[in-house]
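Table S2 (continued). Query chain:
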Amino acid sequence: MAVLGVAGCSSADPGTAYPVQTAVSSASQQAKAAQLPARPAELPIAGVDPCALIGQAQLDELKVTSVPRKAADPQDGPTCVLDANTTEPFHAFHLRVVDADLQEWLTGARRKNSMTTAPVSVEGYPALTNYRASGTPSDCEVLVGAANGETLAAQAFAITSGGFSQPQLCELATQAAGLAVQGLKAPS
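Corresponding output:
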C-alpha cells in the first residue's frame, strides 16, 4: 500500500508562495490572541488625525526631520508620514488609523501566512508586531488595539537598505506606537 503526501502553497502574488494555513497554524494564532493583555480602556480613534498624535518633543525623540504630512494615497485609513532623513541610516514612519479590530491580524481577514506576528503590550494596550521575517529587514508594523474594532498602526521603514536589523525596526515602530497612544490619552 502506497501513501502519498501532498503539501500545498498558495499566494496571490506569483513567485511569493507560502504554506497554506493548517489547523496547527490557526491554533497557534488563537494562542497568540489569548496572550494579548486586556484593553485598559477604550481609546476611540475614528476621525482622529494621526498627524495630531505626535508633538514636537516626540518627533525629536523619533529623530523625525520633516513636517508630518498626510499620505497622498492612504491604503488603510487616515495615514501620517514622518521622515527621518537628516543622518543615516534614514528611516520613515507611517501612523495609520484603521477601521478593523486587532484580532483581524491574528485570526481574521487581515492575517497573512507570510507575516510574523507576536503579541506585545504598548502603553498597557494589546498590540502585535507584524513583519516579514525573510529577506533584508525593510519594515516593522506595530498594531495597537485602541478600541473595539479600531486599530492604531505604527510602521517603521528602513530607507537606507541594510541600515537596521528587524529588532531595531520593531523597536522604532513600538516607540512610535507608544508615543501615539500617549497622544491619544492626552486630554484635548
